[in-house]
Structure prediction request, 122 residues.
Amino acid sequence: MKILKSAEDYLETMLILKNRHGYIRSVDIAAELGVTKPSVSYATKRLRENGYITMDAGGHISLTPSGSKIAQCIYKRHKTLTDFFISLGIDEKTADEDACKVEHEISTATFAAIERYMQEQS
Prediction:
């Protein structure tokens, strides 16, 4: 299930937008990620071709089961890492930004160890 970091970011953003608004639109993705609408169009085309999303005639986007699985995994990593960094005394904004960078590269074993540590702390 290895895909490009940018695709992971798009899928994670789509999950966040779905949870926030109940729907996903390209214009909202562009605003959330700070990218152009043509960039979103290109990315959604690739994600659609790879079976991670579908789009209806009205332009609303839905995550497929495989797209949703990736999005949820990345989102969980992001939230856990953000909380971990905050617990170390990092300010929330920096923790969130650093989590976004680390979530794509961290090994499964290291992430599992951080998850266990955070569960023990709560």
Remarks:
- The chain has six helices and two strands.
